[in-house]
Amino acid sequence: MKIIVIGSGIVGASTAYHLARKGAEVIIIDKQHEGQATAAGAGIVCPWISRVDDPDFYTLAKGGACYYPKLVSQLKVDGESNLGYGLVGALAVSTDEDELNVIEQKVRERQSETPEVGEVSRLSAEEARQLFPPLREDLQAVHVTGAARVDGRLLRDALKRGAEKHGAQSYTGVASLEIKNEKVVGAYVNNEFISADFVVIAAGAWAPELLGPLGIDTPVEPQRGQIVHLHLPDQDTSKWPVILPQSSHYLVSFEDSRVVVGATRETGSGFDYRVTAAGLKDVLYEALHVAPGLSEGTLQEVRIGFRPIGKDILPYLGQIPTVKGIVIANGLGASGLTMGPYVGSLAAKLAMGEELEIDITAYNPLRNCLKVN
Ligand code: FAD
Fold first, then answer.
1. What's the pTM value of the predicted model, to 2 decimals?
2. What is the ipTM of this complex?
3. In which domain, by residue range, is 289 found?
4. Which atom belonging to ligand 1 lies closest to the Cα atom of 38?
């Protein structure tokens, strides 16, 4: 079975890795567009504290978080262990006890069904600062030990290398699809035609350009996120927990004395790949408001990524009835680093004609399409 995977952000890289391990002949085509979401993502893997209540969303988010340990061990067997993945835990922080009570109750409900949530406890402001020293002095916390963080770039590259070790071939360039008699027969890249039995489209926010010529007016659009990397010289940040204030902002720490703070959510941004004055101000204001101890950090880098967002909160995953041989995996929005590796494993099963362990009806890729010819 010869399968082309278009896009090698987290979704495509994971799909390719799983396909190659199953013995498929895999071709990866990726343009490496500026603003690839995976290259900018913060890397929080914590569906346990999410305020999104949709059960179909939670199925993929929980599935994603629970899948990580298995994937990490598989990659290790393939000689890939530098992923920036760590089960560092998370602190939901607030000054409002009632707010923390609601969070604690929700997390405990999830814990009763899913042991991967880990331990749940309440911390005083002082206890919280022992785990994350830059934190403001009046913030108490709900501590959840089963939260993780991952470096999206490292994981993406490890999955791609892993796929290549199992025989996958990689091309750099823009892919376009070739359809004959309502079936995909391959793709063009750099004027070369590559035949295939199946194509998985994991093209993130750029998917509409690819699917438009098939008469599919896909409703995915880019949502810009600006995110700041701070360096804290001589600080061991490797075990600091993820900090989740009661807003869309957050703080995530990595091994190399680095704290990542973000991010803007700029719906309607288009592919405008720029750091803006307002974006940078918002991100730094929110971060220093929650963790004033970061104010002496060195501003190391600002990353920009385009989250692929659909018309609703649910991803798009599945085949399309109008053209045979295509699987779409897209629209993972703000949770793609959590769900992406798992969604990639499901996309690989779909392409290979294997049975899935979950019902994917709710993720029908054509459910919000404005037009399907
Ligand atoms: P992408 O990573 O965007 O990859 C798509 C790839 O397809 C690109 O490389 C592109 O070049 C390629 N492509 C497109 N069209 C073509 C074509 N025609 N031919 C060849 N190649 C093509 N998620 C979390 O779970 N936790 C977080 O903490 C988190 N934080 C985030 C913070 C920011 C600032 C951003 C921007 C995102 C964050 N996310 C987070 C979301 C997550 O990063 C995305 O949902 C996820 O990376 C999307 O992956 P993807 O593979 O679908 O798309």
1. 0.97
2. 0.99
3. 89-144+221-309
4. 47
